[in-house]
Target: M23 family metallopeptidase
Amino acid sequence: MAESKGAGLATATVALFMTPVVVVMLLLVGGNEASSDTGICGIEAEAPVAEPAGNKSVAGFSGKQLKNAAQIMTAASDLKLPVAAQILGVQTAIGESTLKVIDFGDGAGPDSRGLFQQRDNGAWGSYEDRMNPHTSATNFFKVLKTVEGWQDLEPSQAIHRVQRNANPNHYTQFRSPAVQIVKALSAGKLGEDFDEKFEDISPNGDCPDTSPDAEQIGDLGSGEWSSPLPGFKTMTSPFGPRQCPAGASCNSNVSDHKGIDISKKGGASVLAPTDMKITIAEQGQGWKSAYGTYIIAKQVEKPGLVFEFHHMVHGSLKVKVGDTVAAGTPLGIEGTTGNSTGVHLHFQVAPPGTPSNAPTYRTVVDPVPILKSKGVFS
Model:
């Protein structure tokens, strides 16, 4: 039986089959809210010790540098932010000033001052505020709190939203020492299993995945779906950990692939897998340039999955923000724009409740079980 979709959908007829309800059990990665994360990064920050036991150096930092780091951590604690924020704050100050209260700027910002190299533009308070470790850190965290989904962003990208560095990836190299410093200055104040929790942070500083091993996404409905790239020839990269592809720009040799890469080797139309509303459709700029031309959309009906489609040919988009389209509607053409080493579609899925007005970093699910359950992946 065919049923014409209601007003607002792109002109299309969607076949609905009286098939059993499909419920999918999927592996989740990460979480939307830091407060819901039970791992070390999501625990509410505690005021640190003044310096590590024995007044030893940590990750090459010592003395006044560690006392400044303690002030940063205290500022996060005072604002009732999680440990993840403490790590970001210390990571930022290492990248800006090597944890020193600097009374000079640089060519890009001659009026920059303090631990965070904050400018004299009225946004960061007075000269005294910018030179005060606790006050400057407090102002950093207040702006960080306004960055929607900061805890879901790659750490250097989250910092970049506050600092606006010319290189969005500048702070990545300072992640590991920041984790070491926060651990040393926390000195077991975060519970008896403190050491074990910090061990869950990866060597390159990624916060742990603390979501359940499996989470019930819910009823995917009985409507017919489409493959996002019908007849694709190969899956060039699966979901999950992978070696950084040759020629690609990665933060580490092993990266966590947030979706799947499928390819029909050029010229193929990318299709909407189900009825969905377009929330972003653009050529990525700034840190989002890595996505090339991309789309984000939210499933119209329950459960409300969020889809991302990356690396499409520039100028090929056939939809715009606000459009509601039916399954099988052409969206664009598979390409190799952005941080890509060959023609393909990066297809990514996030669970219900994920914001659809910005790219998703932490909370993602493997798309393959979803597509297989709807008969559009073999």
Remarks:
- The first strand starts at residue 2 and ends at 4.
- Confidence is low (pLDDT under 50) at residues 1-23, 27-38, 210-215.
- The radius of gyration is 23 Å.
